[in-house]
Amino acid sequence: MWLEIICGIIIYQLFRRFFYGGNDVLDVETSDFNAIFSVANRLEKLCGGKVYVGLNIPDADTGSRKSIDIVLVTKGEAAVISVKNVSGFVSINDDGSWTSEGGRSHRKERIPDPVAEAKNTASVLESYLEQRGVTLPEGYFSYKVIIPNPNFREIYRNFPPEVITYDQWVQLEPGPKGMISGWVKGAFRGGKKEMQDSFHQQLNFILSTAPMWDRLELKGSKHVLGEFLEFKGKQEDTLALRNIKRSKVGHMAVQKTSMLGLAHSKLQVVYYPRDYRSEGVSASECREVEVRSSTEVIFHPQNSTKVRKYKLSSISSMSLSA
Fold it and tell me: Where is the NERD domain (predicted)?
């Protein structure tokens, strides 16, 4: 009996290593990214608008880039959303920063003022849009901080109105009486419909072509935002994948993984035109590439000091920013 148990454990570990590369910290590393995508999906259903996830906008004042979790755009209103996957007992300090105790790290943690950070992020985005020729009405963008973690507990209940706590988040409903609809006043109330449509078309085009983090979708609906670096594996496989680079490729989907024989993965690669100076729609091109499933994607997750390796067998898709 013990021999059967041991053999079962070995087989499970080999299976896990084959599909997930033996990455035991995968769930911890992807939890914050999963929270962002979960919030984005729910916002789209609540508001009926368009959401943009993982923007990485140039900040002219600092010469660096500003990460934006979510931008929500609906008719007449828009909001910059910061997602804080905070757990434990959380209180607000005099300087606006937060202190969390008893969360995932099991120790006291200080979080810089999320509301001030979201406000600054909205300002950076407005400057970027103006540089790309969008004239924004005054106060068009609002900013919110959403806490989707069910293990969040607020102390003293003195969070500012820009913060949507977990209890408030799960109670949000679509419609004119919901909290979402009051985030931003209608920017073009009383204006011509043609003007509104033209503005939103321009705004959505610029946001859809703005710099973003690269993204991986892993098996099990796990997400990672960061920077794709390269492929590692057998020489014939890396040669077959040499044209998958951000200057040419927008999306790569792993269609099928075979565990028979040498275990190969079939990839559907979508080549997008990368010249966004014109708003004209250009045709994309799809190609299929088949390589070993053990081929690795070398990826640097956002806000991480470590570079990670993900086997193709653990990946559902990869999207590259221009």
Answer: 31-148
**pLDDT tens sequence across 238-275:** 999 988 888 788 889 987 766 554 578 888 888 766 55
Among candidates 132, 159, 162, 131, which has minimal Cα distance to 146?
162
214 in Cβ contact with 228 (< 8 Å): yes
Helix (H) or strand (E) holding 88: strand 88-92
| CATH architecture entry for 27-208 | 3-Layer(aba) Sandwich (3.40)
Task: Return phi, psi of residue 280, to 5°.
Answer: -70, 145
User: Per-domain residue ranges for the chain?
Assistant: 27-208, 214-319
Q: Which amino acid is at 134?
A: V
Tokens 């998958």, residue located = 244
Q: From residue 214, how far is each of 11, 194, 210 by CA, in Å? A: 33, 34, 12
Q: Cα(first)–Cα(last) distance of the chain, in Å?
A: 56
pLDDT at 3 over 70: no
Q: How far apart are CA 222 and CA 203, in angstroms?
A: 29
Tell the burial category of 238 from Cβ atoms under 10 Å away from its Cβ (0-12, 13-18, 19+).
middle
Residue with tokens 């920077």: 227
H/E segment holding residue 13: helix 2-20
